[in-house]
Amino acid sequence: MRTRNVSFAFPPFTRTVKLLIGINVAVYFLLLLMNVAHQYKGIIAITDTFSLIPAQVVHGYVWQIVTYSFLHAGFFHIFFNMLTLWMFGAALDIHWGKRQFLEFYFFCVIGAALTTIALAYAANGVLLFPGTATVGASGGIFGILVAFAWYFGEQEVFMFPLPITMKAKYMVGILILIALAGAMSNADGTAYIAHLGGALFGFVYLKFIPRKGLLFGVSEGYYGIRNSYHRWKRRRAQKRFQVYMRKHQQDPKQYFDEYGNFRPPEDGEKKDKGGWVN
Prior knowledge:
Radius of gyration: 29 Å
Strand content: under 5%
CATH class of the largest domain: Mainly Alpha
Strand order of the largest sheet: 1-2
Structural class: mainly alpha
Order of helices and strands: HHHHHHHEEHHH
Number of strands: 2
CATH architecture of the largest domain: Up-down Bundle
């Protein structure tokens, strides 16, 4: 009988993951210390300014679509988000590199925020209200889970605290179903809409964004448009020159090679004398 060995090694603690976790933990402890110091007005000011509140975003608080991801509602909220970021984000950081990993993470964070805002107004009072505050990095975390299942779906993961293992793609599917059920029931106030929005935008990124990332695709598109513009200018100048030469009864072909590049008239007079010519 063949037996299967399952290793329980921890993933590496990459620099980008450390950066994200460090910012989240620093913000959490700042609010914790303010609470110990009884700075309740300061806590309220921070949460009201940087939480995701759809009614405020549409009135100019656009930074909230990013800053809400650095605020958390309690210890277990931040603990499980940061644990998941480490356990699954490290592999993607190594696979993509720092630039694309951060691009993907914040693409999902912003996508989760936009989904929350859209549904807050489209289904006002059914799922959530425009004045409801959303906090947490769960949108980015669910995007990371989808990406991990996309690239490493066959890898088995340990279902802590249950003593069982499961393929990553099945685990992510179960978590998405739980988030969907939670969004429809909306029983405990958890921002399941943001979870699903992050997962949706993670899938969109993986499916439709160029393989090297959104910024790479934008830069390639920009340089492609710029090069097309320069080629158009060169063809236009060439046509004008040909018209000019015909008016003066000269053959324009002697000034251009078969590729449309300009060839000075003296080049045709040079004779090949053999050897190297500098």
